[in-house]
Amino acid sequence: MTAAVAILAVFVLTFGTAYFVAQEFAYISADRVELARQAGAGDKRAASAIRVMEHLSFMLSAAQVGITVTGLIVGLIAEPAFAQVVRPLLDAVGLPEGAVPGVSVAVGFAVATIIQMVLGELFPKNLALATPERLAKVLASSTHLYLAVSGPVVRLFDNSAAWLLRKAGIEPVEELHHGATLEELGHVIGESEAGGSLSSQLSGILGRALYFSEHTAGEAMVPRPDVRSVRADATAAAVVELIATHGHSNYPIRGEETDEVVGVIGVRELLHIAPDDVGSTLVRDLARQPLVVPDSLPLPALVERMQDAGDEFACVVDEYGGLAGIVTLEDVSEELFGDITDETDQQAVPVTQDGDWWQLDAGLRVDEAAARTGLPLHESDDYDTVAGLIVAELGRFAEPGDRLVVGAENGRENGRENGRENGRENGRDNGREHGRDEVEIEVVTVARHVPELVRLRRRGLVHTDGNAEAVQ
Questions:
Q1: pLDDT tens, 396-443?
Q2: Which secondary-structure segment (H or E) carries 447?
Q3: How many domains does the chain have?
Q4: Beta strands in 147-195 (DSSP E)
Q5: Other beta carbons within 10 Å of 198
Q6: Which residues form the CBS domain (predicted)?
Q7: Which of 14, 210, 229, 396 is least enclosed by beta carbons within 10 angstroms?
Q8: Do 429 and 366 fall into the same domain?
Q9: Domain extent at residue 244
Q10: Which residues neighbour 40 within 8 Å (Cβ) at sequence distance 6 or greater?
């Protein structure tokens, strides 16, 4: 083979390497959602590219085989071909005859490497990263042809690699799962709000929607101490009085035991009796079957249960089978849209700011209080509300005037990124070891032995070994 033919072969094979590198990076980087949109609009090349991406692991194996084979052949013929070209030049400049072979080989190797790296690797890689969807569509037809021809050999190599991977305890996958994480979407929402593209209200709704599935019935429910109920042996007149006094449409019916819920009664049941019978009709005769759900049930599953039962009211029970509270479709909606106030709601304690201090209802969940005040309060599985946090840190029931400092969780997003449990524990550990923001809490009023109204303020970053300290 003459040097000219060999060099021509090097460039042809380098083009082949570039083709396989472009395949590899284009299909890894391409936005499948965008390709699906184009395919839905009638773009046949986009549909063909999606079919390639459905077998991504096999396609990547085929591309690797192509890159390896063309690279090996280029290395075999490029070095002697370029050495043969540069040898006369080295002789012409007066290089000693003994050094010419070694120098010509080194120069040939360097030239071949530059050509292979620039034209065969870097150029197609950068091209694929710059225009992944367009390149994926351009290469789709030829990729299908190549996979059909090289399929048996590639499948042999691919199955061998998959077998080794399974031996290592890892299950191979055929395609990548594209899409942003919840943290990435949350960052996009925050940036969009900061840039003025989203209103604060819409940003809040989208942010709550991201983590809607992480919340449970126990977090959205009205706790048992705030639940109004009626005895099974009471009359319908008692229910009418409850509705007139508190305004709610449905009430759980208590059985003989304290935590026993035997049914639910509401406006819909009262409509079936005559006004004259209200004082004599027993509640147990009007009751409908209660929808009972565990407090650990995720909210999306709770909505499905309500839809299946055709009921907007559910009784929440704890792990011991006792009534933990009640949850309505309105309570679930508030997890998405924020507080929904109607004429039946009691006036809630507003979250107000006075200088550095925030005043709020201690019955707020810790994450809700953190969102409204901007104070990164530490979350834990040991409590749900600010009141629970205070009691847990004090180790006793709170009294008006109690003040304490708690270690704030450094970066609430860490809890989202690493899992709710890990994030909470890491926040506490990091606080002990490296210093943390601290939040000072003052108990203003107490109801039923637990804080009712509290004040909070940020204390700033400090270094301390304790998680909470009393403030004199």
A1: 989 999 999 987 654 333 333 333 333 333 333 433 444 457 899 999
A2: strand 436-447
A3: 3
A4: none
A5: 19
A6: 221-280, 286-343
A7: 396
A8: yes
A9: 212-337
A10: none
